[in-house]
Design goal:
Helix content: 40-55%
Largest sheet: 6 strands, antiparallel
Strand content: 5-15%
Mean pLDDT: 83
Oligomer: single chain
Length: about 425
């Protein structure tokens, strides 16, 4: 080493600093690379991604290899710096050389490559994988020996070595990933994905048509009343009951029912024949599970019942689809069923029969959904009494004015324009 010219020592030192930068940057790149993007590229046949993924299956070996190389080149660089310092200034220059080397390694072999690797991990991780794969095979005995001691220390601390970090995401973590996807996923698609995830937290009670709003056909009515009930209904499928809504005997399709009623040989028994078997759904069934149940059973309508078998409401496949894609209307801010805009002052008039989930979706509010299912129920729970008209309150941060009430609840409320805009922002 003493026979080398001074410029040769500087070139060797420069090479060692470059190698140190490579080890430092590639370590950061491989350990911070997005595992899902890496897996996707590996599945598409990217050779560098496949090698990198295989290396990351055993992070203890990869880290051992990288640190072995990095420490080796850094020690060699320190030794060369000592020789150069002795030649240039004697014993007194050694401390100066050590300080300069520390600064150079910190800037050029640590901070700069690691920052770059954090910003663009793929650019370093894939080329580095081609180097580390054969290097690991060559240096495997040394790496194995190092890992033998380090893994033993980890076991003493109660840590199981040799396994990669789990990349499985729970629902809340997946929600965060989707929410923060930004321009990578269009806003509309992002909203649909979040709605699908929310199906796990909602039940059929949250979106069902309550029994007091269900249009049904009583088989004990005469033909004229039955025809009128079918024609006036806004749904193509209606429950057929005998004497009362709790005694549902089938589900009628409007088209089939009208054809049967217009036949001259029509009898009440014909309605029973053309009605489909009722499909009952227990209350508390998660929406995601119910969607699968509809698919497996080839059903379109479900009758929600409680633990005693009493009829609670009706749920359809359309209701479930609207939970994912939104209401099948044109302008959600001006009119969503129970929500209407006042043309005079721009305020919103809201029918309190609206479900809390629909209200949250329409105005982008965050009213609690665990508890009362309707706005009326939420207001009554909050006030613990039936209020008088013109009563104002702040419901979970949203100012609301009560416009109309009945003997047993709140009928209509008003939301000021600025409060509505605040919710949709």
């Amino acid at each position: 080493m003493n026979d080398l010219p001074l410029y040769g020592l500087f070139l060797a030192l420069l090479l060692l600093i470059c190698l140190s930068a490579f080890f430092s940057g590639s370590e950061t790149a491989l350990l911070t690379i997005n595992r899902y993007k890496l897996r996707n590229q590996a599945d598409k046949g990217h050779r560098g991604a496949r090698i990198a993924s295989k290396l990351l299956d055993r992070p203890d070996r990869l880290i051992g290899l990288i640190l072995l190389g990095n420490n080796f080149v850094n020690i060699m660089a320190a030794s060369l710096t000592t020789i150069i310092a002795l030649r240039l200034g004697g014993q007194g220059a050694i401390s100066i050389g050590a300080g300069l080397l520390t600064l150079v390694i910190l800037i050029f072999a640590e901070v700069t490559p690691k920052t770059y690797a954090t910003l663009h991990p793929e650019r370093l991780a894939f080329p580095a994988a081609y180097v580390y794969a054969p290097l690991l095979r060559v240096l495997y005995p040394i790496v194995w020996l190092v890992n033998l001691f380090t893994n033993g220390l980890l076991r003493l601390m109660g840590i199981a070595p040799g396994k990669g970090t789990s990349t499985d995401l729970n629902l809340e973590e997946l929600r965060t990933v989707v929410s923060e996807a930004g321009v990578m996923i269009p806003e509309r698609s992002r909203a649909m994905l979040l709605a699908i995830l929310d199906l796990e937290h909602a039940t059929v009670e949250d979106i069902m048509i309550p029994r007091n709003e269900v249009d049904g056909v009583d088989i004990q009515d005469n033909a004229d009343e039955i025809i009128k009930a079918i024609r006036n209904s806004s749904y193509t499928r209606q429950p057929l009951y005998d004497g009362g809504i709790d005694n549902v005997i089938g589900v009628l399709h409007a088209r089939n029912a009208l054809h049967a009623l217009l036949r001259q040989d029509f009898t009440i028994a014909n309605l029973r024949e053309i009605a489909q078997e009722p499909y009952f759904v227990p209350e508390g069934t998660p929406l995601y599970q119910q969607l699968l149940n509809f698919q497996r059973g080839k059903q379109q309508v479900g009758l929600v019942v409680d633990e005693y078998g009493d009829f609670l409401g009706l749920i359809t496949v359309t209701d479930l689809l609207e939970e994912i894609v939104g209401e099948f209307t044109t302008d959600p801010s001006d009119s969503i069923g129970e929500i209407h805009r006042n043309s005079e002052d721009g305020s919103l008039l809201i029918d309190c029969g609206i479900s809390v989930r629909d209200l949250n979706r329409a105005l982008r509010w965050e009213l609690p959904t665990r508890g009362p299912k309707t706005l009326n129920g939420l207001i009554l729970e909050y006030l613990e009494t039936i209020p008088e008209p013109d009563t104002s309150l702040k419901l979970h941060g949203h100012p609301i004015e009560i416009i109309q009430t009945t003997d047993n609840g709140v009928k209509m409320v008003k939301v000021a324009p600025h409060a509505a805009r605040k919710g949709r922002r």
